[in-house]
Amino acid sequence: MDQAPALLYDGRSPRARAVRLRIDGDRLHAEAADAIDAHDTPSLNWPLAGLRWPERQRHGPRQMDLPDGASLQSVDPQAWDALARQAGQRDSRVVRLQQSWRGTCVALLLVLLAVAGLQRWGVPAAASGITALLPPSIDRTLGERTLAALDGQMFQPSRVDAAAQARLQRVMAEVLARLPPGRASADAPAGRLLLRDAGREANAWALPDGSIVVSDAMVALILQDTAPADVDAMLVGLLGHELGHVHRRHGLTMLVQASLTTAFGTLVFGDASGLLASAPLLLGQLAWSREAEREADLDALAQLRAHGLSGEPMAVLLERLHGPASAAGRADAGLLSSHPDHAERIAGFRQAR
Questions:
Q1: How far is 121 from 98, CA to CA, in rounded Å?
Q2: Exposure of 210 in the CB half-sphere (CA atoms within 13 A)
Q3: Can you give the residue ranges of every domain in the chain?
């Protein structure tokens, strides 16, 4: 008859008593393991039908909670498992899979595929659906607060001369007038061009409320040894790109998606601040950002075609920002980039007619 050494906790005292377990008929018996404890450890027994055996595992002790508030903890796991089999316990399918390296690897692969699928398609689709339900007033509030924060920390008043500012505003008005149907509805954020001094940062930012902020350094880069017609083409492409972000509500959608991915990561990984959780969230956000940039580039190309302009000046502007197409993708492409391969973007504009 199988016996298993165990520790008995009576539920009233922290002291553990050494016992030996055995099965007799339909009951589990616990008897003192040595004669010294026999006088204060009476033989106890419990009906097998009322016991809930713990799942078998490869390592670590087994513990069973007893109906009377006491508990048993295994000393010899193999002997305990033999006693459990004698009591009629059999591993469930889940336990067998947990003990199988093949089953564990398959389960891990399925989880990773599910996480990747949700992050690649599920979360962006959900974020787009939620954004579509949010009123435009949220875009306006978010844009106003973002601009106020940037004006207080990153931006200074523009130093671009009045003539250049007037030219930019003229091109902005022309771009807005040629927006595709559906992009200039009453609910869509109105476009507004703002110039700011951001130091050496040559960039443009699309805010959710429709504000397009262009840095003085970007204006200087556009005007640098550029033919007047090409200046207009660069401005049309740049403003068309940023307005694409505005009217596709990319800023608000990315905010919603970040909230969803954080919640999803916490649900799956427990602690969203850990490396294991933050890595897939970061990669997912960067992948969506690259896709948003591709969509905005398509809007820029549509504006250039509507104005009868070539995409070559935009390709030149990107080369000024990131270097020649032959070298642009070396350091800026890949999973850790928020923008598509710059060589790919340059080629896309250069090939447009």
A1: 30
A2: 15
A3: 3-98, 115-351
In single-letter form, the type of residue at position 338 comes to S
Dump pLDDT digits (tens) for 105-114. Answer: 888 888 888 8
* Strongest mean pLDDT among 189-193, 262-266, 269-273: 189-193
Question: Which amino acid type is present at position 292?
Answer: A
Q: How far is CA 139 from CA 187, 205, 208, 255, 295, in A?
A: 11, 15, 5, 11, 19
Cα-atom radius of gyration of the chain, to the nearest Å?
34
| In contact, 5 and 18? CB cutoff 8 Å | yes
Rounding to the nearest 10 degrees, give the CA dihedral for residues 154, 159, 164, 166. Answer: 80
Q: Give residues with Cβ within 8 angstroms of 140, minimum separation 6.
A: 189, 208, 209
H/E segment holding residue 21: strand 17-24
CB 297 within 8 A of CB 341: no
The residue to which tokens 């009453």 are assigned: 186
Amino acid at 203: N
What 8-state DSSP symbol labels residue 196?
A: E
Q: What is the pLDDT of residues 44-97, one digit of tens each?
A: 899 998 898 888 777 778 899 998 889 999 999 889 988 998 988 888 887 777
- Percent share of the chain, pLDDT over 70: 85
**Burial of 147 per CB tally in 10 Å (0-12, 13-18, 19+):** buried
For domain 3-98, the CATH class is: mainly beta
pLDDT-derived band at 275, boundaries 50, 70, 90? very low
